[in-house]
Amino acid sequence: MPGCSTCHDHQPAQSVSPTYKKVLWVALVVNLGMFIVEVASGLKAGSVSLLADSLDFFGDAANYAVSLFVLGMALSIRAKAALVKGATLGIFGLGVLAYTTYRLWTGQIPEPLTMGVVAVLALVANVAVALMLYKWREGDSNMQSVWLCSRNDAIGNVAVVAAAGLVAWTGSAWPDLAVAVLMATLGITAARTIIAQAWRELNQTSV
Questions:
Q1: 174-206 and 141-170 helices cross at what angle (nearest 10)?
Q2: pTM to 2 decimals?
Q3: Up-side HSE of residue 107: CA atoms within 13 Å toward CB?
Q4: How far is CA 175 from CA 2, 19, 178, 180, 191, in A?
Q5: Labelling 73: which of 4, 44, 45, 163 has CA 20 to 30 A away?
Q6: Residue 11 CA: distances (Å) to CA of 40, 45, 48, 107, 136
Q7: Domains in the chain: how many in total?
Q8: Residue 160 to residue 125: CA distance in whole angstroms
Q9: What is the CATH number of the domain that holds 97?
């Protein structure tokens, strides 16, 4: 879920096993791909909950990138990377809220079949990543958090599947809008936490 975006930005430098690194690469590609799929599908189907769910994939893709590229670097570099990620996540979250407001005003009903199919695909992707990371679920705090975040993200996918079903059943856009507002708010809250922590760490390195 979006709140998981802080799971492993600020761990101390550590060595990463070659196998674990390969798994992180696969997880990065899967999450980045699903981010693109959900954004494109959300816009096509008129579903803001799909757009909001894509925040999970963006946040996780950024986390895996941080783990792969900057985790062993200086704290100041990791903090700057976290600042960029937090700002981007927050801007995208605000954009989803703005689009939700627009959709509320227009009253357009999203296409539930596309919502449901893409949400199920996202659920499968998150479960697959969680299974790949399962071996390292009892490793250090960084490894544990990576696995837990992938596992918990499935909750957001289930929420979108439920919203799609309710849209089809009620003929109303409200389920889609409600899930979008909840998930976008979680994403913005996570972004604030990331930025605040990154600023504290940058201040520590400048002392």
A1: 160
A2: 0.77
A3: 1
A4: 19, 41, 5, 9, 24
A5: 4
A6: 33, 39, 33, 45, 16
A7: 1
A8: 14
A9: 1.20.1510
Q: Which residues fall within 8 angstroms of residue 124, CB to CB, at 6 or more apart?
A: none
Amino acid code (one letter) for 5: S
Structure tokens at 66: 């941080």
pLDDT digits (tens, 9 = 90+) for 153-201: 777 888 899 999 999 999 999 999 999 998 888 888 888 888 888 888 8
Q: 124: closest CA among 19, 33, 61, 63? A: 33
What is the residue range of 94's domain? 2-206
d(CA 139, CA 134): 10
Measure CA 64 to chain center: 11
Contact 167, 110 (CB under 8 A): yes
Q: Are 51 and 106 in contact (CB under 8 A)?
A: no
Q: What is the 3-state secondary structure (H, E, C) of 147-191?
A: HHHHHHHHHHHHHHHHHHHHHHHHCCCHHHHHHHHHHHHHHHHHH
